Amino acid sequence: MDARLNYFASPIAGTVLKSAMAAGKAIKGSPLPAATQELVALRVSQINGCAFCIDMHTKDAAAAGESAVRLNLVAAWREATVFTEAERAALELAEQGTRIADAAGGVPDEVWARAALHYDQEQLTALTVLVSFMNLVNRLNVIAQQPAGSYEPGKFPVQAH
């Protein structure tokens, strides 16, 4: 399978992706825990069906020491006992922020309040930006049918996409 578009050969994509990668780098450097960032990136990518990002974030998280059990259970986090309450709140916010069209009213106040119990304002900002960022790059990859499977951990200097 070949991608429909070669983002690396396109001047417009190069300009946009340079800015996007700068945003990804800022998120990576935020006070939001790295493990939470990878779990959220993985869950958003699962919801959006972005195989490229699922491949990337699964491999990068494993290379950073994340357990196979936790990675395998991200899709069923509600029933899994391997996530902290803070991680569960982040995953719930990520799902609601990704499924905005399904939730008609956006992210419910209760979901935001649960996240706010575990994260300060800067972390909540990073979490919100991460969810939005992942939705952007997921859509780019899904529309272009970016193939998955050959990603090697650390391939990109900023692995937030």
Automatic annotation (TrEMBL):
Cross-referenced InterPro entries: AhpD-like (IPR029032), AhpD_core (IPR004675), CMD-like (IPR003779)
Transmembrane regions: none
Protein's recorded name: Carboxymuconolactone decarboxylase family protein
Pfam families recorded: CMD
Residue span(s) of domain Carboxymuconolactone decarboxylase-like: 23-95
GO function term, MF aspect, one: peroxiredoxin activity
Biological source species: Kitasatospora camelliae
